[in-house]
Amino acid sequence: MFDHSKYGFGTNAIHAGQEPDPTTGAIMTPIYQTSTYVQEAPGTNKGYGYARGKNPTRTALENCLAALEGAAYGLCFSSGMGAMDAVLKLLRPGDEVITGDDLYGGSYRMFTKIFANYGIKFHFINLTEAGNIRKYLNANTKLLWVETPTNPTMQIIDLAACAKIAKENKLIFAVDNTFASPFLQNPIALGADIVMHSVTKYLGGHSDVIMGALVTNEKSLYDQLYFILNSCGANPGPMDSFLVLRGLKTLHIRMERHCYNGRKVAEYLKTHQKIEKIYWPGFTDHPNHEIAKKQMKDFGGMISIVLKGADLAETFRVASSFNVFSLAESLGGVESLINHPATMTHASIPKEEREKSGVVDNLLRLSVGIENVDDLLSDLKQALS
Predict the structure, then answer these.
(1) Is 37 annotated in the active site?
(2) Residue 197 carries which DSSP code?
(3) Does residue 202 have an active-site annotation?
(4) List of domains in the chain
(5) Catalytically annotated residue among 85, 101, 158, 176
(6) 50 included as an active-site residue
(7) Which of 96, 160, 218, 303 is most buried when burial is the number of CB atoms within 10 A of its CB?
C-alpha cells in the first residue's frame, strides 16, 4: 500500500490513492464504468452498492486529492458549483455567511439568487484585512467562505488570520483554492476546515473535464458532506475521474511552467504603455504581497489587467485580437485564455457591485498557459498594438 506521508508532492500527484489493478496489474486506475455492483447477499456490498454514492475510480481520485491537500478525506462532485452547493447545504434558515467582496460570479450568483431565498444571509466584505470579519460576527454566523487569490482582482487573504477568527467563533472555515491549486497553497495546513476546488481548472488541467472537489480533515464534516453528495446526486462519472487522475500526474510540472510564464507575462505588462493597472500577487507593490509570499509557494499564472482609457468597444477589440491566447471562459488549462469578466464570468454581478471591487468594463483576465513564453509575449505585443 502506497504511504503518501513519506513522499513529496510530485510523487504523490502520480501515485497517491492509486494501486495497480489487483486483477491485471494495470498501472493506471481502471475506469469502472458501472452503475451498480453485485452483492453475494443483501448488505455485503464491500463499500460499493450504487455508483451515485461511490465508484472505485472516483475513490482513487478523492484519495489522491486529499493527499495533495494534506487532508484525510476527499469528495468529488460533478462541478465546482456542485461542491459549493454541498457546503451551503450544511446551513439552515437564519444562518449567516461572511465572504469576500471579490468573488467568482458563479459563487455570488449561487449565494444571492439561490441560498438567500432559503433564509441564509450573506455579508460581502473586504477580507484583505482579516480583522474586518469581527465587525460582522453575531450568534447566527456559521460559515466563513474565502477565495485567495480572488477572481479576478487577485486579492490575497491571510488564511491563518481568518482561521484564528473562525476557530474562536466556532465557524466553518471554507477556502476556494482553485486559483492557487494545492501545489502553491495548502489551506488545511493554515487552519481551514474545508478546501474547495473547481477541478475543471488546474487540477484537470486540459480543459476537457467539468468537476469539483472538497477536502477536509474532520470526519464529522466529511460524513455530512458525503450524505449530501449521495442524497442529492451531484457526482462525477468514472471517465471524468480517470481524466483528472491522469491530469494530476503532471500538476507539479504544469504549475511550475504556469508560474514561470505568468511571471514573464506580468513583468512585460507591468510597464506597458496601454496598461493602466495590473493585478498579480508576485509584485512587491501588490496588496498583501508579503502574505502571498508567506502562504504560497509561488504566485501563479492568473493575471488581470485594466486597459488605459479603453471603452467597451476597444476592450472587446483587444480581447478578440489574440492568436495564441483564446477568448474563452474558464482558466487553468495548458492553453492560454483571455476573459472579459464584466460580460463573461462575472456578468451575474450587478455593475455597481462588481465595479466596487475593481471589476470594471476595461478589465481583462489572463490565464497564462504553458506555451512557449516568447510566443505569448509576441501575441500580447500585437494584440495591444
Answers:
(1) no
(2) E
(3) no
(4) 4-248 (3.40.640.10), 251-383 (3.90.1150.10)
(5) 176
(6) no
(7) 303
